[in-house]
Amino acid sequence: MSRTALWTNAFIDRPYERFGRACDFWTVVTDTRLSERRGERQEFVTLLPDGADACVRVQGVLDGEGGAHLDLGVADLPRFVASALRLGAKTLSDEDTLVVLRSPAGLPFCAVRWHGGSVRPPVVRGSRLDQVCLDVPPSSYDAEVAFWSGLLPDWESRPGSLPEFHVLAPPPGLPIRVLLQRLGEERPASAHLDLACADIEATRAEHERLGATAVAVGSNWTVMRDPAGGLYCLTGRDPETGRPASG
């Protein structure tokens, strides 16, 4: 089976007025430097690693508090989009080389023509930003799992470590994976970023020195808020494989 996606990117979406704060924080966390800003309002920037291909970008949004979204680089964009539409996605915008879609649960994601990314950035001080987590209400969860599993048939689709999780792990070499989380209540779907951490406490301490704050602590995860106000999670997973540290 040929690869559905040839590269994956995670977008950090933050309010436009806090764009600079988000860039300052996430460049240090990911050990990257900023590209030139682009877009009509200079609202897009790529985080550039040394010796590897970029897989994290920041977008300044005008409405709402932002969150995260997935960006998939594909070889045959029309074919991929047609498949997404058959599976229940909706088109939000089509700019020829970039198509913005919405999943059945209402989550935006992007499909773009692959631009040649192939070298995954390394682990940075024991952690790696490697996952977009889709937080889905119970009424939409099964359909959302079916949608993503059907859209990315060459990815490993399997139950997660807890009943409310479902993992979509990409083929080797792709930097960003997908986790679906079934929420405990009915509310609009959203998305956030996860970092795989060899030592959650050490990573948390570093992020707090950079201006982030801890919001909630669990047995194998910590919810953080970055200096731009966005939520993300530190999770106890192997930064190389993405799997739970005990697995």
User: Quick one: overall form?
Assistant: globular
Rg over C-alpha atoms, rounded to the nearest angstrom: 17 Å
The arrangement of helices and strands along the chain is EHEEEEHEEEEHEEEEHEEE
- Tell me the helix content: 10-25%
Low-confidence stretches: none
List the helices and strands and how they pair.
Elements: E1 7-15, H1 19-30, E2 33-34, E3 44-48, E4 56-61, E5 67-74, H2 77-86, E6 90-94, E7 98-102, E8 108-113, E9 127-136, H3 138-151, E10 156-159, E11 165-169, E12 177-182, E13 190-197, H4 200-209, E14 213-217, E15 221-225, E16 231-235
Parallel strand pairs: 1-4, 5-8, 9-12, 13-16
Antiparallel strand pairs: 1-5, 2-3, 3-4, 6-7, 7-8, 9-13, 10-11, 11-12, 14-15, 15-16
Structural account:
19% of the residues lie in helices and 38% in strands. The protein has 247 residues and is of the alpha+beta class. The strands form 2 sheets. It has an 8-stranded mixed sheet with strand order 2-3-4-1-5-8-7-6, covered by helices on one side. Strand 11 (165-169) and strand 12 form a beta hairpin. The radius of gyration is 17 Å and the shape is globular.
